[in-house]
Design goal:
Elements lengths: L33 H8 L6 H19 L3 E6 L4 E2 L7 E2 L6 H12 L3 E7 L8 H4 L9 E4 L2 E4 L1 H19 L3 E6 L2 H14 L7 E5 L6 E2 L25 E2 L4 H8 L4 E8 L2 H15 L3 E6 L6 E6 L2 E6 L2 H5 L5 H18 L2
Parallel strand pairs: 1-4, 1-8, 4-7, 8-11, 11-12
Antiparallel strand pairs: 2-3, 5-6, 9-10, 12-13, 13-14
Helix pairs in contact: 2-6, 3-10
The protein binds ligand 9Z3.
Organism: Lodderomyces beijingensis
Family: Belongs to the PPC synthetase family.
Protein name: DNA/pantothenate metabolism flavoprotein C-terminal domain-containing protein
Length: 343
């Protein structure tokens, strides 16, 4: 029996007045989107379940133990293989500087970081010493038949070493690699789903340079393309568009997280326009626009109704200041507002 204060609803009777309405337009059959189609027709990397376990362990650790906010930083370029047994692939310029540098500033500001990066691209902390000389041995010197850090690098290295150890000891940095665009997309999806329990305390900072075009598995030759198989010595490659995954990320894969995408252009006249249209299209929280030519000197934050530039002077750059040291505190302010607004 229903208690007297509780209203009783009947749902089993048809609504006679509105059951048939011929003036309504035909309802389209459910469509699978390009993104779903992509996952239905491409194989996940075989190691993905192990990555999922690592990520879930990391997320649970921080949720239960440290309570830190969490940043997923993506970094570096994705490859597009031309052959299944890959000898050749298409690549892009990104070395992962933006991602690796930003990850350090997130860590310094108390975030835990999942660093989804192109394998062998720059990593947080080691980046200071890995690509700037011919070899790490350039930082060493010999004394009394022993090898040691050259004293002229020692102070700087000690600073980085301490920060690196702090990140390691507190289990605040999880490194997850990818190489191809397919691996990137599957891994991003898996990490996003594992991060759902983190809700608005998670921030997605998508700095990886993701290829817009790829060769679908259905068209991919198994073996190295032979020059004898080309016509007139020319190789024609037909690429398909990579589906726009940001809408899936915003709508389904993440739950309440703040999502930041990057917009890269080379034409100054397009930057703001393209950043705004990305924001309108995906309804996420922030687009960071940058030009290839000036990306280390200036970026623009485009959020609903707002544009904020961050610029470094030539003097600041000459003194070794990194633009990410200003970008990340500004991102964190946006994240504070996002958490506040979603309370
Ligand atoms: C960026 O715009 C990054 O800032 C850079 C960093 C790739 C320029 P580096 O590794 O470079 O420090 O040398 N990333 C996003 C690029 C991208 O693919 N954006 C897509 C687009 O522009 C949207 S997701 O359409």
């Amino acid at each position: 029996m229903t208690p007297p204060h509780q209203k009783h609803f009947h749902t089993s009777n048809p609504e006679e007045a509105t059951a048939i309405n011929r003036s309504l337009p035909e309802f389209a059959a459910a469509q699978t989107t390009d993104e779903d189609e992509y996952f239905a027709n491409h194989q996940p990397p075989t190691y993905l379940p192990e990555i999922e376990e690592e990520v879930r362990g990391f997320v649970a650790f921080h949720q239960q133990t440290t309570g830190k906010r969490l940043a997923l930083v993506t970094s570096g370029g994705t490859t597009v293989p031309l052959e299944n047994n890959t000898v050749r692939f298409i690549d892009n310029f990104s070395a992962g500087t933006r991602g690796a540098t930003s990850a350090e500033y997130f860590l310094e500001n108390g975030y835990a970081v999942i660093f989804l990066h192109r394998e062998f691209s720059l990593l947080p902390y080691s980046r200071h010493f890995s690509h700037s000389t011919n070899c790490f041995l350039d930082y060493m010197t010999e004394r009394d038949n022993k090898i040691e850090i050259d004293p002229k690098y020692s102070a700087e290295m000690l600073k980085v070493y301490r920060k690196y150890n702090e990140a390691q000891d507190s289990n605040s940095l999880l490194l997850i690699p990818y190489t191809t665009v397919n691996q990137y997309l599957y891994t991003l999806k898996t990490i996003s789903e594992a991060l759902k329990i983190y809700q608005n305390k998670a921030v997605f900072y998508l700095a990886a340079a993701v290829s817009d075009f790829f060769i679908p598995q259905s068209r991919m030759p198994q073996h190295k393309i032979q020059s004898s198989a080309t016509t007139d010595g020319e190789l024609v490659i037909r690429l398909a568009a990579v589906p726009k995954f940001l809408s899936r990320l915003v709508d389904n894969w993440s739950l309440g997280a703040m999502i930041i995408s990057f917009k890269l252009e080379t034409d100054n006249n397009l930057l703001i326009k393209k950043a705004k249209s990305a924001l309108e299209r995906y309804h996420h929280q922030l687009v960071i626009g940058n030009l290839l030519q000036t990306r280390k000197k200036e970026v623009v934050f485009v959020s609903p109704g707002r544009e904020e530039w961050i610029r470094l002077s030539d003097e600041e750059i000459a003194n070794g200041k990194e633009i990410e040291s200003e970008m990340i505190p500004a991102v964190i302010k946006h994240h504070d507002d996002w958490i506040q607004a979603s309370k």
